[in-house]
Design brief:
alpha+beta, elongated, 9 strands, Leucine-rich Repeat Variant, two-stranded antiparallel ribbon, 330 residues
Amino acid sequence: MPCNATLVAPNTYDPKIILPNAVTVVIVGMYMYGFDKIKPEEPGHPRGNIGPWTRGYVQAGRYATDAVESFLEDEGYETRFTNELPYRTLAVKCGLGKIGRNGFLFSEGLGCYIRLGAVVTNAPLETVNYTTSSEDPCGRCRLCVDSCPTGALKGENDWDADMCLHLWQQGKGKYGDYIPIEERHKCGNYLMRTGKCLQVCIRNHNLVPREHFPFQVENKEDSPELIPLVLASEEEYKDLLPYNVYKYGIPYIRRDSIIALGNSKDEAAIGVLSEGLRALPEKERGLCAWALGEIKGEKAYMVLLEAEKIETGTLVRSEIQHALEACKIT
């Protein structure tokens, strides 16, 4: 994982950048399987997916680390919570598990559904060192590699961050804020963070769902309906989505919602996409045209024809023409 703030040499990170008098790094984990409540799609109600434990991403990571910090500070020591250390590798070093081909820590009985966190402290704690060399727990299995929608997983210890859909969804990675036409089908219905490499992993197939999560989170959808998100205001986004989703930027969530609707191919979205094609900023209008082309059918085709008559933006016109070709009635 990228931890540029503490990187001091190739594959070398310095905790003293986080805490100058650091002595020990404590790694903690929270078992998260069973956290997400995914509702099935119904015709006319396409849904997005915000990815495994996104709604509680911060809270789960901080629950255990806060307890560690509180204990150590009561004992008179300094502590710092940080995301700027390679905590999965450090989890291997302290014996919590092994890193699988999907890049996640695997631990027996917990699979890969572990939210990790790190605390740097000046407490002279007893430490262990299992080294950072992880045995391959995957054998010949390549399910995650073969299932990665964007091909970001290349094989053992080989992850192309620029190709990771999670970064695309934040306007980062290879394409920035404009995902090209030929790549949009790879986005599926994900809105923020992805979970394909966890969902397909055979190590996660027989896990027992956790019944109680000892932290408070927003009671919002893990699979929100997509149609209301296309034209939603900032306040409506905050009402509909957890903070750990919309904090990445509402323009990206809107963009990803439109792409997800195109991938859903649900005719119920034609009305809102038609309105978006008239009312949204240029790039989003172009995506609405593309999504209509994916849905196809006479109604979508007629909406695109009408839009072509009045649209002046070069990018949007290009998207409209591509969409008309995609859904042309013969």
